[in-house]
Amino acid sequence: MAWRRCFRFDVAGLKQTFFITGTDTGVGKTVLTTLLARFLRKCGVNVAALKPICSGGRDDARALHAALEGSLSPDEINPWYFRAPIAPLLAARRERKCVRLADVLACVRAMQKNFDLVLVEGAGGLLSPLGVFYSGGLRLSQNPPTLTEHRPSKSFDSRDLIVALGATPMVVCPNRLGAVNQVLLTLETLPKSFRGRARVVLMSPPNPDVASATNAKLLSEFFDTKRIFVLPRLGEKNEAKRVLQNPAVELTLRTLMQV
Ligand SMILES: Nc1ncnc2c1ncn2[C@@H]1O[C@H](COP(=O)(O)OP(=O)(O)O)[C@@H](O)[C@H]1O
Ligand SMILES: [Mg+2]
Asked: Hey, CA dihedral for 113, 115, 116, 120, is it positive or negative?
């Protein structure tokens, strides 16, 4: 189909990194990342999908592994994982470990070299503490990433990764009452240049409320309407393959990548 050729042409040679973050944990980041990975592979795009840091289980890494149909191993998709179902910074501390920002950046940058498009799923929300900038009081990198702002803590979060990687943020939020506030808070937290190219993805809830029908329009009074997307509710098992046969969903995903 013509648009598939067109899409392939647009991403070829353009090293792009999309960072899938959200207004909270459990909002649909993995659902979106796996859908995008499947969609892009279907379009012939050389795509990687990473969840660098997991805590409380590796289900997300397994979902991405399935979506990539084995092109990356679970350990490549998810190099750092910790047992406790709490913020990764704390979960790692419980195991007397820490994730260093420089190591995460090195891991993603290696993928950027080998793939045309890299999807990175964050853990938790935009400011969930993931690991440490420094170790033993020493800077870990001779070329430290741009820090977003003065920070009271030595920990890093998804916002720091987005900035250091120059990634395009995707902000996922359940499409229910409260979404407009949560999305605007998250967008406001991003540096202006990143906010300007961010995408907002509203995930349809199992039981839509009145707000579900009006959130996108209200949000468009504050944020570029072309960058606001609504994804339908998937079936119980997410039925990714069937969903991707829906032309409306394909069009949404394609526009999401190209807008
Ligand atoms: N559009 C959707 N269709 C079906 N289920 C969804 C959708 N969005 C989220 N979910 C469900 O919500 C739960 C949390 O989604 P998940 O992608 O794991 O969130 P996160 O990665 O942000 O923690 C999962 O059970 C997932 O299947
Ligand atoms: Mg997830």
From this structure: negative
